[in-house]
């Protein structure tokens, strides 16, 4: 028994050739070139009326890219990871921490 295969296999109902006559005219566009610190060049398209940004993220490495190939924007510095104790030590000195600890221990022991 032969398998029946349709000549429109994989097509959706109502689908047709995609093109400008069916979808309408595209908005006028312009391209801008951006270079990152690694020398990658990207050219995104923008509408003619759109304001072109000064910085664009490089799709290859993720660094910020700018319009000048010789003067690429600097990569943002990453903040170092701090634990909860690291944040506490930023706010309090060693003496303040010991005083708070002694007060909490006194409450637990019931002397306060």
TrEMBL record:
<keyword id="KW-0479">Metal-binding</keyword>
<dbReference type="InterPro" id="IPR038638">
    <property type="entry name" value="RbpA_sf"/>
</dbReference>
<dbReference type="InterPro" id="IPR025182">
    <property type="entry name" value="RNApol-bd_RbpA"/>
</dbReference>
<dbReference type="GO" id="GO:0008270">
    <property type="term" value="F:zinc ion binding"/>
</dbReference>
<keyword id="KW-0862">Zinc</keyword>
<keyword id="KW-0804">Transcription</keyword>
<dbReference type="GO" id="GO:0045893">
    <property type="term" value="P:positive regulation of DNA-templated transcription"/>
</dbReference>
<feature type="binding site">
    <location>
        <position position="40"/>
    </location>
    <ligand>
        <name>Zn(2+)</name>
    </ligand>
</feature>
<dbReference type="InterPro" id="IPR018527">
    <property type="entry name" value="Rubredoxin_Fe_BS"/>
</dbReference>
<feature type="binding site">
    <location>
        <position position="58"/>
    </location>
    <ligand>
        <name>Zn(2+)</name>
    </ligand>
</feature>
<protein>
    <recommendedName>
        <fullName>RNA polymerase-binding protein RbpA</fullName>
    </recommendedName>
</protein>
<dbReference type="GO" id="GO:0001000">
    <property type="term" value="F:bacterial-type RNA polymerase core enzyme binding"/>
</dbReference>
<feature type="binding site">
    <location>
        <position position="61"/>
    </location>
    <ligand>
        <name>Zn(2+)</name>
    </ligand>
</feature>
<comment type="function">
    <text>Binds to RNA polymerase (RNAP), stimulating transcription from principal, but not alternative sigma factor promoters.</text>
</comment>
<comment type="similarity">
    <text>Belongs to the RNA polymerase-binding protein RbpA family.</text>
</comment>
<comment type="subunit">
    <text>Forms a complex with the RNAP catalytic core and with free principal sigma factors.</text>
</comment>
<keyword id="KW-0805">Transcription regulation</keyword>
<dbReference type="Pfam" id="PF13397">
    <property type="entry name" value="RbpA"/>
</dbReference>
<feature type="region of interest" description="Disordered">
    <location>
        <begin position="1"/>
        <end position="30"/>
    </location>
</feature>
<feature type="binding site">
    <location>
        <position position="36"/>
    </location>
    <ligand>
        <name>Zn(2+)</name>
    </ligand>
</feature>
């Amino acid at each position: 028994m032969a398998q029946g295969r349709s000549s429109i296999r994989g097509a959706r109902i109502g689908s047709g050739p995609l093109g400008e006559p069916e979808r309408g005219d595209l908005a006028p566009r312009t391209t801008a070139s951006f270079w990152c610190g690694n020398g990658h060049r990207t050219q995104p398209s923008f509408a003619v009326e759109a304001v072109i940004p000064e910085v664009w993220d490089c799709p290859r490495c993720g660094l910020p890219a700018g319009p000048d190939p010789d003067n690429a924007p600097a990569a943002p510095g990453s903040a170092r990871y701090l634990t909860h104790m690291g944040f506490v030590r930023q706010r309090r000195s060693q003496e303040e921490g010991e005083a708070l600890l002694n007060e909490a221990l006194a409450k637990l022991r019931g002397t306060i």
